Structures are given as C-alpha cells and as structure tokens.
Amino acid sequence: MILILGGTTEGRAAVRVADEAAVIYYYSTKGASQSIECAHGIRLTGAMNAEEMERFCRDHAIKLLIDAAHPFAQALRQTIEKVSNGLQIPVIRYERRYPPRDEDLIWCDSYEDAIRQMENKSIQRLLALSGVNTLAPLRPYWRSHTTWFRILEREESLSLAEKQGFPCERLVFYQEGEDALRLLERLHPDAILTKESGSSGYFTEKVDAARQFGIPVFVVKRPVLPETFYRVYGEYGLRKQIERLLPEFFPLKSGYTTGACATAAAKAALSALLSRKEQTESRITLPAGEPITLPVAHTEWAECSATCTVIKESGDDPDVTNHSWIQATVRLVPEASGRDDTERIIFQAGEGVGTVTLPGLGLEIGGPAINATPRKMIRQELIPLLPSPDSAAIVTISVPGGEELAKRTFNPKLGIIGGISIIGTSGIVRPFSSDAFIASIRKEACVAKAIGCETLVINSGAKSERYLRSLYASLPPQSFVHYGNFIGETLKIAADLGFKQVILGIMIGKAVKLAEGFLDTHSQKGVMNKGFLQDLAKEARCEKATADGINRITLARELWELLSEKEQNRFFPLLLQKCKSRCAPILPGGKLTLLLISEAGKVLYRS
Prior knowledge:
Blueprint: E1 2-5, H1 9-19, E2 25-29, E3 41-45, H2 50-59, E4 64-67, H3 74-87, E5 91-94, E6 106-108, H4 111-120, E7 125-128, H5 139-142, E8 146-151, H6 155-164, E9 171-173, H7 180-187, E10 191-195, H8 203-213, E11 217-220, E12 230-232, H9 235-245, E13 255-256, H10 258-275, E14 281-285, E15 291-295, E16 298-301, E17 305-311, E18 325-333, H11 341-344, E19 345-349, E20 355-356, H12 372-382, E21 392-398, H13 402-406, H14 411-414, E22 416-417, E23 428-429, H15 434-450, E24 455-459, H16 462-471, E25 480-482, H17 487-497, E26 501-507, H18 508-516, H19 530-539, H20 544-549, H21 559-562, H22 565-583, E27 591-597, E28 603-606
Parallel strand pairs: 1-2, 1-4, 2-3, 4-5, 5-12, 6-11, 7-8, 7-10, 8-9, 10-11, 19-21, 24-25, 24-26, 26-27
Antiparallel strand pairs: 13-23, 14-15, 16-17, 17-18, 18-21, 20-22, 27-28
C-alpha cells in the first residue's frame, strides 16, 4: 500500500501515476481545499504528526511513502523522515524542476538571512510573492517596512493574515489576467521576495517580471532534502521508482523505447569520444522535459569514433526488441561551418536498422529508419556537447540481430527493409500501450495513402487479414491494416486521411460489441450483453426459444449454432446494420462496407 502526501501540482501528477495501477492507495493533504479526483485512491485530509502517521502506516500496511508536498513544507518533511526511519519505509520525493541558480539573483539561506540582506540594501518597499505562510517568519521586516503580500483570496489565507496582525490593505490577491509585471507596475516596489519554488511555482515568471521592471529579486533557497529520500522529477521517473521499490504495486512494468535507448547510447558515445573515459550511464531528457538516466552496458573506441551500447528494456510490453543491444557510433566532422542544427547531426543506419523505401513515414527515401522524435532527442543531447560551433557528428545507430527481428514487425509492409525502426514519441513504453497501437495504425494508413491507395481494408488481426487478402487480392499489402480493438480510432484515421472507401472485416464477437456501441471492443471496455442480443433476436423475429437460448451461451460465436438458417438470414444482417450505424458517422466522406466473417474465413454477410 502507498501513502502519498500531496496538495500540490506534483501531488496531482502522483495521483495520475498511482491510478494507472488500478489498486487502492491513500492520498493525504493538510487541508481540504485542493480539488482532485482519485480514481482508486482514498482521500485523507488533516495534518498528521509523527505518532499519528506512524500509527496510520502500521494499521494500513503502508510500504511506500511518496512526498509530493510543497518543497518548503519542512514540518511535514521532518515527520515523513521520522516515520520512514522508524518503520523502515522508503520515501520517494517527487521533485519540482528548478532552473540553475542565477548569480544575478540575491540568494538567501533563510528568512532571517533575507531580512538581513534586504535591510543591508535599504529595501523600503517590498512585494512578497512567497505565500501567506511566510507572514510569520517575515514579521520583523513587514512591521517596519512597507510590504505587500500576494495571497490567494480564500478564507483560510485571510484568517491566517488576520491572526498575524498583517494590515489588510497591504494584501494583494491573485487576479485573473494580471501577471506579475502588471502587479509591479501597479505597486512600484523596490524589490520582490520569492521562494525557490521551481517551475510549478512560477519562479521563472516572477524573476522575468522583476527584471523587466528593473528591481532586484531576493530568493529564499529551498530546504535541503534528507539524503535517504529517492528523488524523481516526473511521472515516468515516479512510476519506475515505484516499480523498483514496490514491485507488486503495478501489475505490468514499463520500459524504454528504442528511440530513448538510441539517444542515451549516442550521448554516451560522444561523451566517451571526447573524454576517452568509459561510460556507465547516460542522462537524457524525454520529449516531455523529464530527465531520466539509462545504464550503459559497453563502451568501445576506434581510431576516430566511439561506440556505446544500451540494452533495451521494454518492461512487460510484448516488444520484439526487448533485451536487444541498441548501439550508437559517433564520429566527429570537424569542419562543418555554415550548417544549421538540423544538419550538424548526420544519421546513418548500421547493422539491423532498416532503410526507408516507401513514402508516407515522414522520412527520406533511402534514409535510415530513425523516426523524427528520436532524431530530435539525439540532436538536443549531442549538439551542446560538440566541441565547437563548426563541428558536426555522424551518428550510426545499430541493432545487432535487428534484420531478423524486423520480420516479426510491420516493417516489411511499411517498406522498411534490412532491419527495425528506431521509434518512440514519448521515450517510454507503457505495457500494451493503446497510444502506441493507435500510432502504429496511423503510420500504416499514412503509408497506404502515400503510395496511392484509395481503399483501406481494416481487420482485427492476422487471421481475418488472411481471409480478406484472398478476397481482395488485387490490392497492395499496404491497404490492409489491423485495428485490433480500436475500430473507432481506425475509422477516424481513415477519415482524417481522406480514404474514399473503407472495408471493415469483423468476426461475430467484436460485431456484437460494436453493434451495441463499443467502438473499442477490448474485453475490459465491453462484454457480450445477452439482454442486447435477446432484444436483437426479437427484432429479427427469431423464435422465443432462440431468444431464451441466448441466456445459456457463453461466447458470441455460439450464435452460429443457436440460430436456424432462416433466423441467421434475418439476425446477422440486422446486427451488421447496427454496426454500420455506429461506424458511418465517423467516416462521413467515404464509402463504408462491413463484412461479417465466420471462424472458417468465409464472408457470410455484407452491409
């Protein structure tokens, strides 16, 4: 069981991660003002002291604590540390992202230090953007200097200000549409005081406004975290740390894309080339801005290049590249003046990485099958490391054994020959990812469109595709796309790309769910509704005994045996008609044909 201590933006993110496990956890905040929905979490409110938190953890078998509270919540952090040490429960700290400490700012070790420095610099008019809870420690200053505090206009904040005796006319409330610069122009302070609150605390925006206004910024440094806390900086980092510290929490483990592995390997290889030192890990930034660190398995040098290997870990996703070696070889091009950043990194396909032969993928024909996002990630990591503005690098990505692996993917259909693709839009692999499957559907459909196909034949998988290929033998292989369970998403993609005709092959199990309105036919989204089938049987004028018999079936395919031939000829066309009525609005500009396919591969009904 997990206990999350939240109340912040990071708390919301921690809830999103925990909800992915679909198991119970606890989410605790000091007050009840934060509006948050926990799909599987139990909400707790009210501050707990060390004794109360320790008792709660014992009573509820808490095995992991997640500190997602404000970075300046010192009392809570001391409580968490005491409970963690006493019960030997690990703590994950969900950290904010902080910009580097700018020397132009006036850094203060404490509020007492801030008061001393402001008085030394004769600051008489101060705007405090440090929050209502800093009224007490800053009391010696605001009692003798003109000071405004910007706070949230809510009862608990006003009550706290009144309790401290702060003059109400000096309170400034957050106003919609008023940014920090407008506030400065209205009040004309000599300086602002803020906390090192990170990106989610709008730290940079406050500093930028003060600079535009031409006044100094005093910053109270964030408190130092206990050394025993495990720090993470994003949702993926949090999930990976939970998977490591509490393996049973998530039923399936996440992993890394080939793109993330290639980026880590390339950065490590360039670092090895420049430093001549072996690399054991590589820190990269995911497209969403989250830093992660991947282990580097091997480092090798040649005369003018270095090669690093990252071993792909896909978690519990059924990825053919799981445990493959993703290698990057980097060689410098010293005289490359006049090139822009997109040209300073030159990509090549090594062993096991495919070559593009068809349009529609957004990659050059004849070029390496390294997708746009991995290319962007590699550029962003390598360009700052290049030794001079005039230097460039040739990056060769290799996957030993990749040519064999590619035979088990869609690459041959996509016109990628000789190996796998280096892919990934987020850098992470979520097991059985719906987003990844839908992205692959779009990619296949784009290739079909790019080579001139006007008809898209969509089917649930390899079995039904074999039947449909024999029926539409004149169509190229790129016209046939698996929708898996995502019928609605596939039709949306077909509509977006402007296909003139879509032929949808479907078997009875998915047809029953689709007819009822489930455009995603996964078993978790919808199950066979016997009541719906009985109503359909009555509408098709089936015998009462047939309708009653539906109660006894466990699989939709048993309908083939249950219904008489005459009943089938009324029931199944009606079923297809209802399927079509669900699908047709998604494809308003194209012709839609539905084919009901038997287990033996025969098209029995058409609509």
